[in-house]
């Protein structure tokens, strides 16, 4: 097989066999020095592959770590059933904390608490750090030198983003809130004040110790879990 004549097939096979994102440098390393294609040629065949995979169950997509073949979002709910282990569920409090870090980074834990109006559970920060979705990027030059948090390349890869510019704008998020109001979606019961609120929010961040079939979980600020606070790992499985 002549690499120059079959570059597209070689790249496609490499992406499929790798099972993870590959950079242009890593793709170049697949070839001998004399037959190594230029990055411009690699980008061209990757773009061709992306077009070839349109309207299919899988797609070629560029994320922060490079290019990869992945299951499309439309097919993810069915493909995720291939794995018997249920993906972890994340509380609304955790997702709000992650969103604040993504949009306001670098940001301290205290600043997150000021915006949300409630304390941030240590389990929430530990979960985000263990998932490698956030990392400490520095320290605020104030008394106590609190840690500054920012998102990681793994965060971008998990959510299928190439860079932070691909995040939906705040205006788009507000539009979603307006749509929910127009649909008259039921509001959570905010009158019931559960016991042991802090303990229950902490427990919500330990997926292995929880019953993943539970439909709702209670958080410190007496919020009720909704489906918008859940994240499935189907894309990562792909």
Descriptive account of the structure:
The chain is 40% helix and 11% strand. The strands form 2 sheets. The chain has a 3-stranded antiparallel beta sheet with strand order 3-5-4. A two-stranded antiparallel ribbon has the order 1-2. Strand 1 and strand 2 form a beta hairpin.
Which structural class should the secondary elements be placed in?
Answer: alpha+beta
Number of DSSP-assigned strands:
5
User: From the coordinates shown, what is the CATH architecture of the largest domain?
Assistant: Orthogonal Bundle
Going across the major beta sheet, what is the strand order? 3-5-4
N-to-C order of helices and strands = HHHEEHHEHHEEHHHH
The pLDDT mean sits at 76
Q: What distance separates the N and C termini?
A: 29 Å
For the record, what is the CATH homologous superfamily label of the largest domain?
A: Winged helix-like DNA-binding domain superfamily/Winged helix DNA-binding domain
CATH class of the largest domain: Mainly Alpha
Helix and strand topology:
Blueprint: H1 7-18, H2 24-28, H3 39-52, E1 58-63, E2 66-71, H4 76-79, H5 92-104, E3 107-108, H6 109-116, H7 122-130, E4 134-139, E5 147-151, H8 153-158, H9 170-182, H10 197-204, H11 234-237
Antiparallel strand pairs: 1-2, 3-5, 4-5
Helix pairs in contact: 1-3
